[in-house]
Amino acid sequence: MFLHKAYSRFPYAVPPRVKFFNLFRNFFRIPPLERFLVKQLEQNPDGFWRRSIPPLYFYPDNSLRTATRDGVVFRLDISRLIDHWIYFHSMKNKSLQNLFRFIKPDFTVLDIGTNLGYVALTCAQLCKQGKVYAFEPDTENYAALQQNLALNPFTNVKTFQVALGATAAEGALYKLYSINPGANRILAEAPVQSVGSERVEIKPLDAFKRDGTISKADVLKIDVEGFEIFVLQGAREVLEAWKPLLFVEVAEVNLRQQQYTALDLIRYLESLDYTVLDAATLKAIDLTEENMHVDALCFPNTKPLTF
Questions:
Q1: Is 263 helix (H, G, I), strand (E, B) or coil?
Q2: What residues does the Methyltransferase FkbM domain cover (predicted)?
Q3: What is the C-alpha separation between 14 and 7, in angstroms, rounded?
Q4: Are 279 and 248 in contact (CB under 8 A)?
Q5: At what angle do helices 16-25 and 2-9 cross, to 10 degrees?
Q6: What is the pTM (predicted TM-score) of this model?
Q7: 154/158 Cα distance (integer angstroms)
Q8: Calculated CA dihedral for residues 274, 282, 47, 145, nearest 10 degrees
Q9: Closest CA to 43 of 89, 74, 109
């Protein structure tokens, strides 16, 4: 009965093979076994025990956990995708680890599409002499960000409940999946699948430079579910003035909802005088890949590459 209800919460079909192994994964929902599993994953996130992680749809809403990751404390609802990833150490992927390698203690980092704050707060820990500016328009995500910020002693983080785009405007932010608030996105028309929406303010990043709110930018992380080109269009002055390192999600499916493609985004980044690499491998991105979904690390051509 429990498994039937769990699968009914998930918006996708679960293959029989996965259901079979889920019978064993379910045991790791027992608190002592869960703690054991998390401990093993802390030591080796990509090892054998990764196969034992219970899927997020096994957890009811408000399955709350408190966890410390890389010196940052988080309050997590592991029935949600990003929270689940953080709790079970799945956020320790090569792309983000490569990004964190480049963060220096005095850097100013702009986290655009902050969600609950994993990247923003990790960067705050890494650049204690610098600053982090976190942009998140979604009300629910912004509340989670504030909660996680309050759990930590950081004084170098400033948050903004606003979306960034090409021009000042107002838009509809649609919530596609209740289990993944990180997939919320601004769209011109209502999608077929949606569990709600809200109106949000949109501002160009350059406006924050012009009014003096931001006086420096060393790194821009942009993960806004297909809205990336518009963010970049509204940040031309920031990019030209400070030539920051860019970390940009490139997702074909999301970009097509905005009438762009992954190749369009990569070519646009190159037109801004950046070298665009796969963030996980630090090598050139395979432009022939269908339905591309990759994180890009983009280095300004005016600065030498140093890995």
A1: helix
A2: 111-275
A3: 7
A4: no
A5: 120
A6: 0.94
A7: 10
A8: -20
A9: 89
